[in-house]
Design goal:
Blueprint: E1 3-8, E2 14-19, H1 21-36, H2 38-48, H3 52-60, E3 80-81, E4 90-99, E5 102-112, E6 117-121, H4 128-136, E7 143-148, E8 151-155, E9 158-159, E10 167-170, H5 182-194, E11 198-199, E12 202-203, H6 208-221, H7 237-250, E13 255-259, H8 270-284, E14 288-292, H9 295-301, E15 304-309, E16 312-317, H10 319-324, H11 329-334, E17 339-346, E18 349-352, E19 355-358, E20 369-376, E21 381-383, E22 390-399, E23 404-410, E24 422-426, E25 437-442, E26 447-450
Parallel strand pairs: 6-14, 6-15, 10-13, 13-14
Antiparallel strand pairs: 1-2, 3-8, 4-5, 4-7, 7-8, 8-9, 11-12, 15-16, 17-18, 17-20, 18-19, 20-26, 21-25, 22-23, 22-25, 23-24
Helix pairs in contact: 5-6, 5-7, 6-7
Length: 452
C-alpha cells in the first residue's frame, strides 16, 4: 500500500513522492487526530480572531508547522535575512497597524534580545494583543518590518504565514486538547515535525521511543515529570499552563509568544507559576515575548519591560530602571503608584515639601537649578514618631496583610502636592484610622523632570 503525500520543501515548492505503508498509516493517523481536534481548534482560533484561511493552514498543513526558515529570497511567501544583527535580535521597526480609520500602532520600534523575556505592558485597548498577533502572523502590518531570528517575516512584499515563523504560542487559557493526554498534547508539535517537516533541507526522522523520550524531557523541564498519562481535567490551572508551555517549546521555536497566560489563574497561584515560567525560559535560553496589563507581573518576570502607549513604545528598559527612572510623569503614574510633587533643583539635591532630597544622577535636568516635577514612590515615605518632618492627617487606611497603604493630606502648604492626598506604603506598625495625625519623612534619591 502506498500513499501520495504532498510535501513542501524549504523553498515552498510542493513535491509528490511515494510513501511506504507504515509512514502512510502514521500520516493518516495524524490527519484523523487533526480532524478530531477541528471543533476545538475552531473555538480557539475564533477566540484569537484568526481568519478561516489561516485556520485551514494551521490545521491542514501540519507538515510545515515547524519549518525552519533561515535562508532564501525575499519574495511573496518567502523570507529574507536581516543582516548586521549578530546577536540575532527579534526586531520590529516602524510598525503601523490600523483597523479602518482607527490607528492602533504607529511607527512602533522594538528590540527583543535573543534569550531574553520581554514584557509588553499596556492598559486595555493599547494594542498589546494586536502587536502579538502581528508577531505571530495572524495579522498583516500596514507598514514596517518584523524580523524573527535574523529572518524577515513581515515587510514590503513579504509575509510568512504563522506555521512558518517558528513561533510557540501560549494563549491565556492554555487551550489544551481535552481528549489527549498530557503527553499527547505536548507531542502534538513533535508529531508534525516528524511526519514531513525539514530543517535546513534534512528530513527529520525518529522512532516512537525517541518521541516519547522528547516528551518526557519536556515535561521534566516544566516540572511535570510522570504526568504524561493524565488528562487536562486532572490538572490544576497552573499545571495546565505548564503543559501549554511545554507544547510551545516542543517545536524548538525561535520565539515564544505569551498572551496574558496567567490571567485565568487564581491569585494565590500566579506568583509561583510566574517564577516557574521565568526559570524554564532561563534554563532553556528561549526568547519570549509576554503581553500583560499587570504591572506586578511585568516587573517581576521580565528581563526588559516595554511600556506601550498611544501606539508606540514609550520606554523599554530593565524593570528596575523603568520603575525608578520612567521617561515622564505620565509613565511614572502608570508603572506603579506615584506621588508627583513640585520641587526646586539646587545642584545635586532637590527641595520639596518633604525636605531636601538627593537627586538621582540619571535625571536629565538642564542647568543646575530650576523648577522640576519630582517622583516619590509611596515606599520612599516613612512615618516617623516625634521627629521633625511634614505633619499630615490620615484620610484613608487600607490594610493588605503584607503591607498597608495610607492616604494622607499634608497640613502645610498642601497646594504643593495638588488636590490629591499623598500615598504612603508601610509594613507593620499600628492601625492608623482616618483623622490620625502623622509625621512624614522621605528618602532619596528621587527622580525628576523639568517642570512643564
Amino acid at each position: 500500500m502506498t500513499l501520495l503525500a504532498d510535501v513542501q520543501d524549504a523553498t515552498g515548492t510542493r513535491t509528490g513522492r511515494r510513501t511506504s505503508r507504515p509512514v502512510a498509516l502514521l500520516t493518516a493517523a495524524a490527519l484523523v487526530a487533526a480532524l478530531m481536534a477541528v471543533p476545538l481548534v475552531f473555538l480557539l482560533i475564533e477566540a484569537a480572531g484568526t481568519s478561516s484561511g489561516q485556520l485551514s493552514q494551521l490545521i491542514f498543513r501540519p507538515l510545515t508547522w515547524s519549518l525552519a526558515v533561515e535562508h532564501g529570497p525575499a519574495q511573496r511567501g518567502g523570507h529574507g535575512s536581516l543582516r548586521g544583527h549578530r546577536d540575532r535580535r527579534r526586531l520590529v521597526r516602524r510598525l503601523d497597524k490600523a483597523f479602518g480609520v482607527h490607528p492602533v500602532l504607529a511607527s512602533l520600534d522594538l528590540e527583543v534580545p535573543a534569550g531574553s523575556l520581554t514584557a509588553i505592558l499596556g492598559p486595555s485597548g493599547s494594542g498589546k494583543s494586536t502587536l502579538l498577533r502581528l508577531l505571530a502572523g495572524f495579522e498583516r502590518a500596514d507598514a514596517g518590518t518584523i524580523g524573527i531570528g535574523g529572518v524577515l517575516v513581515d515587510g514590503p512584499g513579504v509575509h510568512l504565514p504563522p506555521e512558518r515563523r517558528r513561533i510557540g504560542y501560549v494563549p491565556q487559557e492554555g487551550s489544551l486538547f481535552p481528549h489527549l493526554t498530557v503527553a499527547g498534547n505536548v507531542g502534538f508539535g513533535l508529531a508534525a515535525r516528524r511526519h514531513g517537516t525539514r530543517r535546513h533541507g534534512t528530513r527529520q526522522h525518529g522512532t516512537r521511543q525517541r518521541r516519547a523520550g522528547q516528551v518526557e524531557a519536556l515535561l521534566e523541564t516544566v516540572g511535570l515529570a510522570g504526568f504524561g498519562r493524565r488528562y487536562p481535567h486532572q490538572l490544576s490551572g497552573g499545571q495546565q499552563q505548564r503543559v501549554a508551555l511545554a507544547r510551545a517549546l516542543a517545536i524548538e521555536p525561535a520565539v515564544v509568544l505569551l498572551d496574558e497566560p496567567f490571567g485565568s489563574l487564581d491569585a494565590h497561584l500566579r506568583p509561583g507559576v510566574r517564577a516557574d515560567v521565568q526559570e524554564i525560559f532561563r534554563r532553556a535560553g528561549t526568547t519570549a515575548v509576554l503581553v500583560t496589563h499587570d504591572q506586578d507581573e511585568a516587573l517581576s518576570v521580565a528581563d526588559r519591560v516595554a511600556a506601550l502607549r498611544d501606539g508606540r513604545i514609550a520606554q523599554c528598559a530593565p524593570p528596575e530602571d523603568l520603575y525608578r527612572r520612567p521617561a515622564d510623569p505620565r509613565l511614572a503614574s502608570f508603572v506603579g503608584d506615584a506621588n508627583l510633587v513640585e520641587g526646586v533643583v539646587s545642584g545635586s539635591t532637590v527641595k520639596t515639601l518633604l525636605g531636601c532630597l538627593p537627586l538621582d544622577p540619571a535625571a536629565a535636568i538642564p542647568g543646575s537649578a530650576g523648577q522640576v516635577t519630582v517622583l516619590i514612590r509611596p515606599e520612599q515615605i516613612d512615618i516617623v514618631p516625634n521627629e521633625a518632618g511634614l505633619t499630615a492627617q490620615v484620610t484613608s487606611y487600607r490594610y493588605h496583610g503584607h503591607d498597608a497603604v495610607l492616604y494622607v493630606q499634608p497640613e502645610d502648604d498642601a497646594r504643593v502636592f495638588g488636590s490629591q492626598p499623598v500615598m504612603v506604603r508601610i509594613t507593620g506598625g499600628p492601625h492608623r484610622p482616618p483623622g490620625s495625625a502623622v509625621t512624614l519623612r522621605a528618602r532619596g534619591p528621587v527622580f525628576a523632570w523639568p517642570a512643564d
